[in-house]
Write a structure and sequence with these properties.
about 325 residues; ABC transporter involved in vitamin B12 uptake, BtuC
Length: about 325
């Protein structure tokens, strides 16, 4: 018969064990979904602080447009980091692709040719990064750090640091300034397409399985027949192309391309991916997690702007949120 204390509490070891197990399960669930929890808290806080302004349709569309570029690049960065690498050259690639693509558009009037050239730039930079890491045996942090400077320098040399103003409406409406079905911003439409493709690639394709295997244990993956070098090169190529695509979207939305565009954006992208639960050590991460992480960053920035806080405050708050999230989510 169960022994009951005078204060009506039960000291049955089985009850204590069940309670402990329940608490641990709740804790593990929250830890595994830290980005979603952070997003809910951010939305509730700014809704309470700004009234209906934060949750208005117009502001939600603004958040979608503002986060589109980060989400697209975070999708590629997820693959790179899951493979146990990192790419610091993405913002520079974004800038160079936007500059060269915009230059072609303004010179020839061809949106298709401009997009092709821009994406080709991203492919070449990504391929170079992949070869430096795999064949050159340079750690990805150092290889892409050097490439970041090289590509940014080339971006500034295109027009001697002068911006390129784009007077081609078709380019605007195709990538960054148009809409689908009359209400969905075109940049959000392209973001959804990229999310679907990268989600399928990482979760259901052979490439995705190879990426997880390479990041989890590269040597073991080699013994099982995974071509790890090819896998790593592919992730960098995908990252480069998505960075270039992001640059074209940004140039289209601003109707201009500038060599300094995107400076520091790689930190927002990496922050979104890490906040979304991807391990910097590789082998773990999801596209959906990175999407939620990017939305947290975008919602934070947007909410602080609505409340009238400066860019410096946005950086401070974003940094604190990321630190707290990583501390909360890390394995014991």
């Amino acid at each position: 018969m169960r022994k009951i204390k005078n204060d009506n509490t039960c000291d049955d070891p089985q009850d204590v064990q069940d309670y402990t197990l329940t608490v641990r399960n709740v804790w593990n669930y929250l830890r595994d979904n830290i980005a979603l929890l952070a997003l809910i808290i951010v939305v509730l806080f700014f809704t309470a602080a700004s009234g209906t302004k934060f949750l208005s349709f117009q502001n939600m569309a603004n958040i979608g447009r503002q986060s589109a570029v980060i989400i697209i690049m975070a999708s590629g960065m997820t693959m790179v980091i899951v493979s146990a690498n990192i790419d610091l050259s993405i913002a520079s690639t974004l800038s160079l692709a936007a500059m060269l693509g915009s230059l072609v558009v303004t010179t020839t009037g061809s949106t298709l040719l401009g997009v092709f050239i821009g994406l080709a730039v991203g492919l070449i930079v990504g391929l170079a990064n992949g070869l430096l890491v795999t064949k050159g045996k340079i750690p990805s942090f150092l290889a892409t750090l050097g490439m970041m400077g090289v590509v940014r320098g080339l971006s500034m040399m295109v027009t001697s640091t002068k911006p390129i103003v784009i007077y081609e409406p078709r380019f605007w409406y195709t990538l960054g300034d148009g809409s689908v079905f009359g209400f969905l911003p075109i940049s959000i439409f392209w973001t959804i397409i990229v999310l679907i493709i990268t989600f399928i690639l990482l979760k259901y394709s052979v490439l995705g399985r190879h990426i997880y295997a390479t990041g989890g244990n590269k040597e073991a993956a080699k013994f099982t027949g995974v071509k790890t070098d090819r896998t790593i090169i592919t992730t960098f190529v995908i990252m480069g192309v998505l960075s270039a695509f992001s640059g074209l979207i940004l140039a289209s939305r601003m109707h201009a391309a500038r060599p300094g565009t995107g400076e520091g954006m790689e930190m927002n992208v990496i922050a979104a991916v890490i906040l979304g639960g991807t391990s910097l050590f590789g082998g773990k991460g999801t596209i959906i997690g990175s999407l939620i992480g990017a939305l947290v960053i975008a919602a934070l920035n947007n909410g602080l702007i609505i409340l009238g806080y400066s860019t410096h405050m946005q950086m401070l708050v974003r940094g604190l949120v990321i630190i707290l999230a990583v501390l909360f989510a890390k394995d014991e």
